[in-house]
Write a structure and sequence with these properties.
three-stranded parallel beta sheet; three-stranded mixed beta sheet; 41% helix; globular
Length: 152
C-alpha cells in the first residue's frame, strides 16, 4: 500500500489519463486511490484553472478506423465520463494507441478538446522538434495543439 501511495502522490506533477474502463475498475477495487487522483487533479484545476488529467475516448476504439458518427460518440462519451468523475470538462484527450487522422482531430476540436498527445514517430522527424508543442491547422478552419510523448 505504501508504494501505491507514493505513486498516487506523483499525479499533481504529471499529465495523465484514466479512461472509463480503468476508472470503473478503480471505483470498485481501489476507490481511495481513485479519490486521491481526482482530488489531486482538482487541486491543480483550482490553482491553475486547468487540471492535469486528460480524457480518453469512451472505449479503446482506434478512432481513425471508425465511422465519423462513431468517432463523435466515442469522444462525447469520453468527455461526459471524464466530466462526471473529475467535476470539470477536459482540456485534452488521449487517443488510444495515439492513433490519429485529420478527421479525428477535427472531431476533438468540435467537441471542445484543445490538445492531444502523439508519439514522436508520428511526426516528420526531419522537420519537427518533438520536444515542443505544435498547432495543427485543420480542414475545418480550426486548430488543435499537439504534444509528443517524451521518453523519460
Amino acid at each position: 500500500m505504501l508504494q501505491t501511495q507514493r505513486r498516487v502522490g506523483k499525479f499533481p506533477t504529471h499529465q495523465f489519463y484514466i479512461g472509463p474502463t480503468l476508472a470503473e475498475w478503480m471505483e470498485r477495487k481501489h476507490p481511495d486511490n481513485l479519490a486521491q487522483i481526482i482530488e489531486q487533479d482538482g487541486l491543480n484545476f483550482k490553482q491553475f484553472g486547468v487540471g492535469n488529467a486528460m480524457a480518453q475516448s469512451y472505449n479503446h476504439t482506434i478512432l481513425p478506423l471508425a465511422l465519423h458518427h462513431d468517432k463523435v460518440t466515442q469522444v462525447k462519451w469520453g468527455i461526459y465520463d471524464f466530466t462526471y468523475r473529475f467535476g470539470h470538462a477536459p482540456d485534452g484527450m488521449w487517443l488510444p494507441e495515439t492513433a490519429v487522422d485529420l478527421e479525428t482531430l477535427e472531431v476533438l476540436v468540435d467537441c471542445g478538446i484543445g490538445f492531444t498527445i502523439l508519439a514522436p514517430w508520428q511526426a516528420d522527424a526531419a522537420r519537427l522538434d518533438t520536444s515542443k508543442p505544435y498547432l495543427v491547422e485543420l480542414n475545418n478552419g480550426k486548430q488543435i495543439t499537439v504534444f509528443f510523448i517524451i521518453a523519460i
